[in-house]
Amino acid sequence: MAIVIVSLIVLVPLVLLVVDVARGRHRQDDPPESYGASLHG
User: Fold this and answer.
1) CB 26, CB 20: distance < 8 Å
2) pTM over 0.90
3) How far apart are alpha carbons 1 and 10 in whole angstroms?
4) CA–CA separation, 32 vs 41, rounded Å?
5) pLDDT digits (tens), the chain, 41 positions
6) Maximum C-alpha span of the chain
C-alpha cells in the first residue's frame, strides 16, 4: 500500500506540471523581449 502512496506523491506534481506547460504558463513567466529575440534570432 505504501507503494501506491509514494507513486501518488510523485505523479501528482508531474501531472500538474504537464498541465501548466500545456496551458502555456511557462511562456507568460518569460520576459517578452527574450521570447521575441529568440524568434527573430
Assistant:
1) yes
2) no
3) 15
4) 14
5) 899 999 999 999 999 988 888 887 655 556 656 555 555 55
6) 52
